[in-house]
Design a protein that fits this description.
The structure is a homohexamer of 315-residue chains. In chain A, 40% of the residues lie in helices and 3% in strands. The first copy, chain A, is mostly helical and 315 residues long. Chains A, B, C, D, E, F: GO terms for molecular function: metal ion binding.
Chain lengths: 315, 315, 315, 315, 315, 315
Amino acid sequence: MYLHAQKLIHEIADDEPDPAAANALQEGLGGQFGEMRTMMQYLFQSMNFRGKAAKPYKDLLQGIGTEEISHVELIGTTIARLTDGSPRYQGKSTDPIDSPGAGGATPLASALTEGNIHHYLVGAQGALPVDAAGNPWSGSYVYNSGNLVLDLLYNLMLESTGRLQKCRIYEMSANKALRSTVSYLIVRDQAHENGYAKALETLGVDWKKVLPIPKTNAEQFPEVKKMVDLGWQSKQYTFDLTGASEAAKIYRGASPSNDGTQLDATEQAPEGAPLTIADERPEEFAPGLDPELLALIQATADLEMAEPEMTYGPL
Amino acid sequence: MYLHAQKLIHEIADDEPDPAAANALQEGLGGQFGEMRTMMQYLFQSMNFRGKAAKPYKDLLQGIGTEEISHVELIGTTIARLTDGSPRYQGKSTDPIDSPGAGGATPLASALTEGNIHHYLVGAQGALPVDAAGNPWSGSYVYNSGNLVLDLLYNLMLESTGRLQKCRIYEMSANKALRSTVSYLIVRDQAHENGYAKALETLGVDWKKVLPIPKTNAEQFPEVKKMVDLGWQSKQYTFDLTGASEAAKIYRGASPSNDGTQLDATEQAPEGAPLTIADERPEEFAPGLDPELLALIQATADLEMAEPEMTYGPL
Amino acid sequence: MYLHAQKLIHEIADDEPDPAAANALQEGLGGQFGEMRTMMQYLFQSMNFRGKAAKPYKDLLQGIGTEEISHVELIGTTIARLTDGSPRYQGKSTDPIDSPGAGGATPLASALTEGNIHHYLVGAQGALPVDAAGNPWSGSYVYNSGNLVLDLLYNLMLESTGRLQKCRIYEMSANKALRSTVSYLIVRDQAHENGYAKALETLGVDWKKVLPIPKTNAEQFPEVKKMVDLGWQSKQYTFDLTGASEAAKIYRGASPSNDGTQLDATEQAPEGAPLTIADERPEEFAPGLDPELLALIQATADLEMAEPEMTYGPL
Amino acid sequence: MYLHAQKLIHEIADDEPDPAAANALQEGLGGQFGEMRTMMQYLFQSMNFRGKAAKPYKDLLQGIGTEEISHVELIGTTIARLTDGSPRYQGKSTDPIDSPGAGGATPLASALTEGNIHHYLVGAQGALPVDAAGNPWSGSYVYNSGNLVLDLLYNLMLESTGRLQKCRIYEMSANKALRSTVSYLIVRDQAHENGYAKALETLGVDWKKVLPIPKTNAEQFPEVKKMVDLGWQSKQYTFDLTGASEAAKIYRGASPSNDGTQLDATEQAPEGAPLTIADERPEEFAPGLDPELLALIQATADLEMAEPEMTYGPL
Amino acid sequence: MYLHAQKLIHEIADDEPDPAAANALQEGLGGQFGEMRTMMQYLFQSMNFRGKAAKPYKDLLQGIGTEEISHVELIGTTIARLTDGSPRYQGKSTDPIDSPGAGGATPLASALTEGNIHHYLVGAQGALPVDAAGNPWSGSYVYNSGNLVLDLLYNLMLESTGRLQKCRIYEMSANKALRSTVSYLIVRDQAHENGYAKALETLGVDWKKVLPIPKTNAEQFPEVKKMVDLGWQSKQYTFDLTGASEAAKIYRGASPSNDGTQLDATEQAPEGAPLTIADERPEEFAPGLDPELLALIQATADLEMAEPEMTYGPL
Amino acid sequence: MYLHAQKLIHEIADDEPDPAAANALQEGLGGQFGEMRTMMQYLFQSMNFRGKAAKPYKDLLQGIGTEEISHVELIGTTIARLTDGSPRYQGKSTDPIDSPGAGGATPLASALTEGNIHHYLVGAQGALPVDAAGNPWSGSYVYNSGNLVLDLLYNLMLESTGRLQKCRIYEMSANKALRSTVSYLIVRDQAHENGYAKALETLGVDWKKVLPIPKTNAEQFPEVKKMVDLGWQSKQYTFDLTGASEAAKIYRGASPSNDGTQLDATEQAPEGAPLTIADERPEEFAPGLDPELLALIQATADLEMAEPEMTYGPL
């Protein structure tokens, strides 16, 4: 059972809208090695897990898998911000229904030549479950052989490939919103690489000098360096509400990345950053409320409400 | 940000393994109108939501979307139990690596003729992200137009279609494990139907006699009737860890299903049922641990561990 | 612009429901060489046609393409009849909403083991736009190179492959409903083979003895023989409402199939057979009308209506 | 059974070729909510229809479905005109085979950077069965649950989404050929919205103020306003050649769009506009006739032909 | 540049036709972890290889990739033999065109219920480029990140997964034709596992006890044991016609599988087994030659022919 | 069984990197009518071939199919060269790991706007198994009906369509690397067209003036003319290492293209051109070797190696 906190797992820096940057980020969301895939892969591996003696391994998968849902939320929100307003429409009309294309204007003209036209035509300046070449996400991506060694090996390769692709995305754009999310995910992918590599170490493998994959250095990615200096590449939250996770039995000891840090999995969750709601975009008919419907919406929003009955936190 | 509780949202009744029942259930997991789709659709609609005045609508989407992740976990686990052991292999060997196919035996022979062969060949007697005809789940299923009325209308249709398909699955098999999960989801889909129908009522629509869709009666589905008598079709949890959800501003008042109940969304989460770990299946090489690897796994499991540092519950 | 006559292009013989036969027929509807494909391919070739001097070739494509829409209707209706009632449910209940699965019965149990489960789970005992292995129809099937010789060559191959597959389907089942439609389409595919082969003859090709493809003989397919004796393999209707078709400039003279007949394209349309409406299937919740909704439907059906204002036929 | 009239359902305004506009229009042809989809969805819903008492509903589906085939023809032809000549090749060569790329020239160079390269590489400057992101049309788009209320609800949502996307396309380009077709389809989609909304009204639903979806106003889309002033959004032709359609029993009375008009379905078909044949494009080898083949084509075109034997109109 | 020897890389044992066994084998041919995928993956990794200093690694990829083409040929031929004649048609008619379905018989009836119907309807009792669930092979399977460590890690996982799936297929059927090919491929997959594991050893990784994956033992798979006793799991041919391969610089020394053998890559190619041509199947119209066409074929076969001019062997 | 010679089948001219040209070429590699498709189609037709009397036809398929693997290698290598260095990164760093993005630079920025972003993000400036619109290659492309006449007819159409598309690609770019490969393939496709057309001639068809398809002339494509003057369009190698091919019994006599040449198939293989290995691209982390790993690689490359034991050539 899952619960949601109205927070983003990491904050997104402000910058200009950028449809091409948004499109590149789609690979990290809906691509074959993106967050939707890691999320689904680990959730399936957890559901189908075999071997009671191996509970710490299941808990590691479940914890990382739960984090990946928050990564889907983070990268999806980043894409939404990068597409929002990118056609340079100001969106400050006092009459939101009628003005956008008044007299036959073309407020969405830029969609023909920049980024993925579906961001403006199928979605309303928001994220889509597709990759950077426009291919929809596919269930055939999910790997779950049931063999523990193979699943761990695949996951190590998967996190490393995700990290490789995010390093390449970093090199494609200096947009700060893109960079803040991509840099965070580069660090978190390494944290997950470390988890799967460590799990294989408990089974005997000695990685020597090949990790991390890909080899990078701090100077190359300044935003990444700041987070590495905080040790985020060696920390894994349990994301577990029942206190039952045994992931810390694996996620401990010297990092397989040979950076001198110790792995740590003794905290439940990070603090997070505020979640906000985007403004309306009349040229997209989103949400498409005319004054009559808006009044009805407002009436609903103005209702009084009792305190909910809580089973879980916040503590 | 999401967290996980090591519980199933609803318990699964015990019954015999049944590969054909498992295959039918795949439609409810990876089908076009299954739980992976509702989950992804509502998470995307939440991420891309527009209109600050409409926060209760976003919170309704976010809350139902979070519940759908638990439904993925529930139906996936049900499929795993229905496939587990279905080839009638006893799995009690004292020498788990060598016995399954000793001397060239065919412990997986039933996979050639029953259910989906991929349950045994690609997975290790577990759930897959595909539908009942074997098609992988596709990102092209997700609908998120950005227009609030359209998104609500689609969601109402989506939940109703999901419920229709689950009623048909119910009529296909009397297996108790299948039935306990399918009946629960029939009731929950109606709870979601009610939520989206009510949201459209706040915008003026009067549904009169057309809801619920499909029309069913209590006598037809005895397992469903028990849950309807408890009012579960009119209850929506917030699944929100920050106490900030305003979904209850919509999910209140008389049910659009005309069954005389009042909608209620004042609780955070249900109690849930225990999550367990499946036994190993040597004939699938899952998890495929020989004595040497098993000893290493056990050493990890035996480690001492500190209490985790909790931010959220349990209270 | 297209119009519809409430008639089937050919009648369907009565026989028992047969889910496996229905599934085999799906190849002829939604398969790579089925009727949806021929229809779409010829409509695209007509829309994108180049060369004013070549109007008879365009008219040939347009006429055959229009006939293919009627073939989609014929084969789809045949599949619907073969699936209808196949789970052996009698459907004669006086209380259509409540009886089908009364007390937890399994009226759809046969769907787990016979034919395509989607016929009962996703559709309501009706045709689907998929092939016999369950793959959805794809736009990537459509071929339209724009080169006239290549398009004609492809079409000749396409009709021959369609006919080959229908001969194989004929050999798979003796169900009379399947056979009446399959035999008719074997003959019509040959009529289209003749059309494209003749068009290539006007450009100089001499086919000698290779046509028709595949080689069959009359004795092998008795139902086919009856229609061949009527000369239907050498006849092409214009299906044109404006009297402007010049297809008969190509579709004339000795048949390229070397059967001694003369091609003929001087009639507009065949007589056709009655179209009927299927009974409801309460176990599918189709159409799912309870007494209240049924009364509303009946009120609509009982309304008086003026004569429509006609521009086209019947003469 | 279907017939074809050699007419376009609406005329296409003249304007410059425009590959980007053509690509955007592909969403309206081969996209998930485009004309190929509405056409196929309604044809399947008609074929698989259940309930003799509900014939007016089937006739409504059949009539709109038949119109959608003409919409496929209209939008496909518009795309063909927008791609035709877009690489700025004049196409007036006296020696059509040899001149286009004489001496190694690159008459198709613009295909590398504008619109969809497949318009020039796979097709010969013509329409393709794909969406604006290049994904082929898929049979998985077709929805036909068999439940009448659900199918009507889906169709209402489908037409509204189609209309929403066409409003967005309108805002992307001021090309007159694109606009004349898109504006016409915006109006016709609303006519279909009205039909499905009205059908749900006969079952009791009261839409109050939510229709039409999306909310637009006349001033915003001048080309649309002209057709709305003619009342085309409230008119539905039967497209039925047998005079048997009962769609007018539903399509009558006050418009659910609250624009003060009365719905009307008492005419068979609109007048239509002339269909023409495109010029050859030697650089595409389309149709690729050298002088010898051209002479053979001309010989066929010069043949005399008898009057066809007509069963249906024109009256 | 590639050349072909008219030999199978390994012989196929004789046994009865078996459509279900043929279908299971399709996973090994066209599945996500089958031979078409390994072949394509290694050919792409070779073409796109970077780093002149790393030539032995490229040569290892090229050599294994070339072997995989022969594996496609072997497993495809095995499937063809297992489907051939499976409908129990004797195929010994003296009049091959007319007899199969004489008088409306159903010689292909078994296709409706056994294996994949496409083996009989789309193919003519032969192999298809699809997996065991009927999904067509996809280019999206191919992994080639360009990062050497990642590509090697993926390949190790890929070969191990292929071997895992083949062990499962072995356990599904005792058919000797299936077993001879599956057992051979289990051994060869291990030989490739050893190659990629060894390549990672040269980069420092120490696998200790985790290899091979999956863990099996000799007694379980008697046919495999015979080939392991011959050391085939530790031998890699160069399949190189220019004598330039440096794969043996990697493929040498103690096996990473810890079985006490030494790796060896000093031979060019194995001896192979005879390739034969299948008999015709008149009920499939394959090859579909009537007496006239057969006479023409024979005339071609009877022609005299000069010795070809050879550049490469046999020596 | 297949072997590989470390040679390209034809040399690639040097020119500037060009991402748009690379993307267009992808259609010739991974497109529906590209080299991966011809290769797979002919390999499947060979494996599934029926009819011992028709061995020359099988050998023709096998020989052309083998050549197509070399074409995959040629066009893939061409794409790799055209993408390599296209982001204008000089790649001459002395510290390959750290310099590419030093200080947060964007060496891959051009990937956002030129060609297919996957060339830089998923691949490392190399070829991908996709078409020019980014769709992955699909097994559903492969046609193998088993009917000899149909398979030959399809193959003739396939080669002609491939040649048509390559003529269009030629007209899209004057890049010399693109042109040298495209021109070679235009000539080889015609050689294959001639082979299949001739095979149909042996069955009686007389093509008169319709071949070749498309009609081109020498002056239009200067690079093609040079190879046509050498007669390469009328020559087919056996690519057979056992001297057993009988393809020359078909591939002989006057060319069906009416160009006055005689077909010839008496040589085993062309000479070929050198294969080289690309430089590393640090900004892609390809191959991603830091100094420690590089030293290990070098140690492997420096090993001594025995002469391999050869079974086949070179002679």
